[in-house]
Amino acid sequence: MRRRLSSQGVRAVVFAAIALIVALAPACASAQKPATEGALFLLLPIGARAVGEGQAVVADEPGSEAVWWNPAAIARGERREIAIHHSQTIIATGDAVTLVVPSALLGVLAIGANIVYYGREDITDTVGTVGVLIPQNIVYAATYATPIAKRFAAGLSYKIVQLRLDCSGGCAGVPTVSASSSALDAGMQARLAGLVPATIGIAVRNVGPRLQVNDKDQSDPLPTRVQGGISVDVPDVAGMPAEVKVRISADVLSDVHFNAPSPRFGASIGYRNQAFFRTGYLFDRGDGEGDGPSLGFGLATGSVVLDIGRIVRGLSADAGKPPTYVSLRYLF
């Protein structure tokens, strides 16, 4: 008779896998040096709530956005969720679709796909347009997360990363590209309730083999990053309405060798868990849009949650096109 793995056994396997990934990440990165990193689109932020809070969310619980930041943060979710996270920057248009499904026996499962689209380029000849080049990147993700006792949570994501340059129409003699790799994200969170009203979190993202375009000599390591931080619920302040809740957070993002760490700070003010104002500040070290402040707003009505985030300064904003992020979530 075939034995089934118990829920406690599954949790133990996940915890061991996360510990192994965290331990091996520096060794994997060292083996990748000194090559230039590839697949830098993996560092683009996903989700309006995270953007509004300065991307300091590794210790927060931002719903389905957590799949792309810290998989452990969905471990205590109690409702199913389907969401789309849209972004528009000077670099690309991004759309990430995520489905989160809690399980009473094992934990929380999630699947997602993120498509980063860079526009299109017409292929022309003497008679006009004959074809279209379509550059895009795609990431597929499957996530499992579970609470461990009352204070801890752990999560693990497996990702398939694709870099594509497709051609449609008259494409004779036009080179196309199709490269892929796999990657793992792992994360943990610990609640400090009873000591201080805070949660600490850590995540290691994009641990995996090189992204190979044509051959071994034309391959680049994935941009492995470690992000750790803390989120604190501010105690009620005299004179502040009881319906108002304030949360502040602080994170540090770095490669596994802690070169050029990137601090980030965020704050969220919520009114009756229905209306939210968010702000943050990101000290970027070249991984994304650039450093500077961010703003965000959120509305929650019943099962629908709408979040909007904007980076005030950076690559896109300096070019006159401030990047906008919109997340629409449906809880059921």
Strand content: over 45%
User: Largest beta sheet: what is the strand line-up?
Assistant: 1-2-3-5-6-7-8-11-12-13-14-15-16-17
Helix content: 10-25%
Order of helices and strands: HHEEEEEEEEEEEEEEEEHE
Question: How does this structure look, described?
Answer:
The chain is mainly beta and 332 residues long. The protein contains 3 helices and 17 strands. The protein has helices spanning 7-32, 48-52, 315-318, and strands at residues 81-88, 93-103, 107-117, 121-125, 128-148, 152-169, 177-191, 198-207, 211-212, 219-220, 225-234, 244-254, 262-271, 275-282, 292-301, 304-311, 324-331. The strands form 2 sheets. A 14-stranded antiparallel barrel has the order 1-2-3-5-6-7-8-11-12-13-14-15-16-17. A hairpin with a 6-residue loop joins strand 7 (177-191) and strand 8 (198-207). The longest helix is centred in the first third of the chain and has 26 residues, at 7-32. It is globular. The two termini are 38 Å apart. Mean pLDDT is 85; it is low at 1-5 and 30-35.
Task: Walk me through the topology.
Elements: H1 7-32, H2 48-52, E1 81-88, E2 93-103, E3 107-117, E4 121-125, E5 128-148, E6 152-169, E7 177-191, E8 198-207, E9 211-212, E10 219-220, E11 225-234, E12 244-254, E13 262-271, E14 275-282, E15 292-301, E16 304-311, H3 315-318, E17 324-331
Antiparallel strand pairs: 1-2, 1-17, 2-3, 3-5, 4-5, 5-6, 6-7, 7-8, 8-11, 9-10, 11-12, 12-13, 13-14, 14-15, 15-16, 16-17
Features:
332 residues, mainly beta, 14-stranded antiparallel barrel, two-stranded antiparallel ribbon, 3 helices, 11% helix, 51% strand, disordered N terminus
